[in-house]
Amino acid sequence: MLSDKPLASEWPRTPRVVNGVPHLRLLSYNIQGGIAARGYRHYLTHSWKYVLPDPERQGNLDRIAQLVNDFDLVGLQEVDAGSLRSGFVNQTEYLAKKARFPHWYDQTNRNLGIIAQHSIGVLSRLRPTQIIEHKLPGFIPGRGTLSVRFGEDENALVLFIVHFALGRRARLNQIQYVSKLVSDCRHVILMGDMNCRSDGVEMGLLLRNTELREPIHGLYTFPSWRPYRNIDHILVSPTLHVERVRTLNYPFSDHLPIAMEVSLQAVNLPDYPSAAECA
Q1: Which of 10, 65, 85, 265 is the right S-S partner for 98, CB 3.0 to 4.6 Å?
Q2: pTM for this prediction
């Protein structure tokens, strides 16, 4: 049983502006619909939680909300937009309200009606100036990327949240698609569950097709109880300076979250830092 005690932060708060330069705290987390997992056996013994409501789910979401409260931009994967299994709770909205994020948005990519609404989401302390939903190519539909822009001109910051397919062929097609989106932007953060390793063919293609970089390779996130695969990533354009990055040992899902702090010398963020202050 997971404890309900307050979390001891693994990611201490830092000033949002240091020597006149704005800093952003980023988090990417696949939350598995709010389902906690402590071993492979739970995929079988807890399989009913993927279709039916679970009284422990809200407590787990509350723990996730406590974690994300320390960050400015959060990309979520495997959230439910409000179906039977989540108790008809939009989990992105729930986390936003619980952690006092003034801005949130979710994109449902596989809508199974009352059974499940598979989505990705964003929580933000900055006010977005544009949000675009993109459907990713694939033989089996149901994957997408969310593009969130902060600012109006060419110096705006653009966040992409992705959850790529399990199959390599589909991932390669999806990376080709996302590469074109990224190449049109100067200041980019790309985060999510990419289902491929840092040294994989797909990641190599993404890095060759764009100017994105991954500051640290081999941040293992899956499975959360014994991580040995690095399939969750945060990539940034060379205009963003990475101050620190690491996985966080909060096993509230079958993935661990990745946290990063960046400084934004060249980025034009209107109303920053006042817009990013916690409520």
Answers
A1: 65
A2: 0.92
